[in-house]
Amino acid sequence: MKTPLLPLPSGFSASGVHAGLKAKGALDMGLVWSDKPAILAGSVTRNEVRSAPARRTERILKGGQAVRAIVVNTKFANDLTGRQGMRDADDTGRVAGKLLGVNPEEVLVHSTGVVGVPIPRPKIFKGVILGVEALSLKGGGDFAKAILTTDLVPKVSCRPVSVGGRTAWLAGCVKGSGMIHPNMATMLGYLMTDAALSQPLMRKLLREVVDLTFNRLTVDGDTSPSDSVVLLANGVSGAKTITNAGADYKAFRTALLGVCEDLAKSVAKDGEGATKLVTVSITGAKNDREAGLAAMAVAKSPLVKTAVFGADPNWGRILVAVGYSGAKVDEFKAKVDLGGYRVYSGAPKAGWSREKLRKILSRDEVEIKVDLGLGKGKAKVWTCDLTYDYVKINGEYTT
Amino acid sequence: MKTPLLPLPSGFSASGVHAGLKAKGALDMGLVWSDKPAILAGSVTRNEVRSAPARRTERILKGGQAVRAIVVNTKFANDLTGRQGMRDADDTGRVAGKLLGVNPEEVLVHSTGVVGVPIPRPKIFKGVILGVEALSLKGGGDFAKAILTTDLVPKVSCRPVSVGGRTAWLAGCVKGSGMIHPNMATMLGYLMTDAALSQPLMRKLLREVVDLTFNRLTVDGDTSPSDSVVLLANGVSGAKTITNAGADYKAFRTALLGVCEDLAKSVAKDGEGATKLVTVSITGAKNDREAGLAAMAVAKSPLVKTAVFGADPNWGRILVAVGYSGAKVDEFKAKVDLGGYRVYSGAPKAGWSREKLRKILSRDEVEIKVDLGLGKGKAKVWTCDLTYDYVKINGEYTT
What we know:
five-stranded mixed sheet, eight-stranded mixed sheet, L-amino peptidase D-ALA esterase/amidase
């Protein structure tokens, strides 16, 4: 796998190392370090079952303190590991804090991977040492690779943002391929900036952006107990602190939304076994909530997702999924377009061509649009097709 | 495919014929006839998108009249076919009524198959003629075969029931393999009896029984716009009419529950591409509603279903699915058993064996039990594994 280019914002360094958790030298632990204390915002899974690292992250978010480092292992989720799991996560934070000369609570500890297996403490601790040794200003790409599990490609995005005439930088990377469904962040996501924002404003913004991006993403409808997205802002750019919803805030919001949308789409595109990125857009719903239900039902439907995989022009399944979504539907008013080609408008479109539709469904990116003709509600969701490889990957995951 | 034995109750005859809708002489239309007017109870899909036949069935159920016949075609769902679809369904009822000498509204017209394609009227009408000609007291097996689509085996069940000292008979058959998820009956189901019940009592009973059986069944989480289950009682046995919830009612309820449970399990077992029947039992939930949410989340989870397919001992996914189900979970109180083998009890069970678990998951029937340790809520759901063949079948359905 190629190492991606992920230029880090000023004051950040990172690394990705092989701690011996995975086979054959694969990167399996990642570390991020900020020279200055970074303001933290974050979203943690709403699954009732939460990994020890997810619970620990919640505790640190609640504490409100600035953070300095993140340690990630991507082999053992440390979930369903009993009381020992929290001790293991805390001790990982302690080891990193000791090595980096900071308080353990300034170190976020994240993990993902197989559940129900205790982490191998000596290997993890050794990984922290290796990670600290490897920290580098150019380590963003290695970090982005180290956080992956079943992903086939690293997922990175970055952009500049002008704050009060000064240029700050925003960079992000995520891992996520299966067990992807909203309800808070749906994977591990790391967003770093050398801009500065007041904590309340930054937390409100991240919630908003996560709702419009990572929470509009589904691969298999399974939410993970590990999922977390964090945004660290260390202010090293020297740009003035954004404290209210003015022009600087708007510019930063646009950049953050852009980065998160890039990352969310790249997760859908790299969904386990996926061959196609599928965008589902609903318009004309009674309201946005119903549009969201409808879009998500279509995006989750195994029947729609297998039909897209097989390029089978079985478009009826789309409206059928809208029909059980909870959204109001009048099938005599609804319209359905695939890749801009209308197949249904209150009734099947006379003369629609199976061959043309098959060609549209054979593209790398498929756009499904449904207009319900009932109101102004709209929503967009990203997903992928459901394939043999999804079954293969998940039928053999721990084997 | 072998023709099953389905002895019909007195006064019923049936047939299954090839009307030329499907290829190579496959049975594609079915007909049921009752010598005497039969009291009707029924459940129709709750999908907002409903096939013309489903809407027509609702109208007849609302009318409350007795019925005499059922016509089923299993190639064209007659769904999303615009206003013409209802005319086609009504005209099919008219043709059958004319041939059988009864009112069109005494004829139920059902269909399943591909959506968005108008039915070929001449072939369907010819099929009705063939079906009437072929009616026979021994035609139950042919009918049970004719109603199938992607099913690999016919699904039938029957039992005697003693009413006031007289023996009546109850027989049922269903079709259903994919697009199976509750919300009313989740497939086409036909239940026939020569007992007699008052209509209000019979309707209440069917609702109850459907909730305990067909609504506890999921294959892929997709509900169909065609799904209907009907119970016809013609009273030809001469057993006295059951009008209240006494001993006769109890006996009939037990028989009906048994038949419907047989049929629901056989649908899960024959789920598209399935290699295994999976039973998910939740106990100790805060209440029955939460137990139902938890059981359904586990049964729907693609990650659980692929792990069962691959016999991958990745049991953590079970509790993770319970965690996002909406049910309250305390992972330190929960217990998980697979095929009677405990793997988790507040923490992973020390020394659980991957090899033993792999053997359990390799069986034809897999029982997943979760005790949440929080209350008295319980629920059971039937499902199947998610396999390559599910993807294959649904990626090529119309092709």
